[in-house]
Description:
Number of strands: 2
Strand order of the largest sheet: 1-2
Mean pLDDT: 89
Largest sheet: 2 strands, antiparallel
Structural class: mainly alpha
Shape: globular
Amino acid sequence: MAVEAAKKYPVSSEELARFGNLGRETSTLTVLRHARIAEKLGLSATDHKALDLVGQTEGPLTAGRIAELTGLSTGAVTGVIDRLEKAGFVRRVRDLQDRRKVLVEIAPLDAERLVPLFQSALDFTRDVLERFSSEERKTIERFQNEMLDELRNEILGESRSG
Length: 162
């Protein structure tokens, strides 16, 4: 059975410009928020986002896989891992199947230290979502998932929907 293509609707240049501006401002403010969080954790913005990517995967990763996920060189990733390990966020462990391999895993995290850094984002997300009906939220969520799929495909060469 053939998969039906998603229906497409025309987008005016004005709409595209508005959404482009919203996306750009959202991206800028998100980067600034995460830079502040990183600073409070004693990390650079790059180290913080690398930690986030590693934390989103299942199980320990090789430095090579971290390089693939982040787009950083393996040399840069070694520095990131060193700094994250020194700060207590990750640890290096031997691969149980191949003792020559070193893996990086997330260290147990201190929730008391981390939760307050993200609480305001959760609070205002709830406050904003309360302004939209359940049906509107489904549309917003679908839009965001479509955007994330496109970004994953462009940046990481993968898609959640496969």
